[in-house]
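FIELD: query
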Amino acid sequence: MLYTAFIFGLISSFHCIGMCGPIAMMLPVDRNSPAKKASQILTYHLGRLTAYGTIGLIFGLVGKGFFMAGIQQNLSIFIGVAMISVILIPEKIFSKYNFSKPIFRLISKVKSTLGSQFKNKSYKSLFTIGLLNGILPCGMVYVALFGAIAMQSESLGVLYMVLFGLGTVPMMSSVIYINSFLTIPIRNRIQKIIPYVAILIGILFILRGLGLGIPYVSPSNMSLFVQENPNCH
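FIELD: result
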């Protein structure tokens, strides 16, 4: 299922243009030295990937806990349903509940710190900008985290989120170099694809949990468990 992380990141990057694009375009990079500019952009992305990997580690540990409890198949089905529900349920229903209220002050502090880093052109500041950018609330990251939980391992959770982040790198880098390379109508059309991709990934997680015996997509129930003795016929 790791390949879905990169694909989802690649598609989600069109959503990132609208949400995080302004941050990328404001990066204090050197406009006169292409080589230095490239290294600065790489440093910014490294900060984002570090944030995604750290979050993936936390949620991977959560998934590992479920795996150790022996409910990994049900968890995969639940996560698939959750992914699809997040896409299908109207946003106005979620807006009725202020889930972020307990951490509102933390988010405000992150934004304040992020703003102060733009005044400095050092690599440390660029890394910090990427790091803080990576932990800002984002619906696409939330969906990706469902996948990190389903990986059932802290290392795979990290890898899932890093691959998701890598998928966003090409488009986010392009935004920095060419601020207006995509017109608003084209962005809107591409954004319409994102829900379908998220739903498809959700379906894959559901199939994985059902254990239908489909190679690579839905392994049989027997192959999902580690046993002391091989299952031979």
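FIELD: remark
Residues 34-68 form the longest helix (35 residues).
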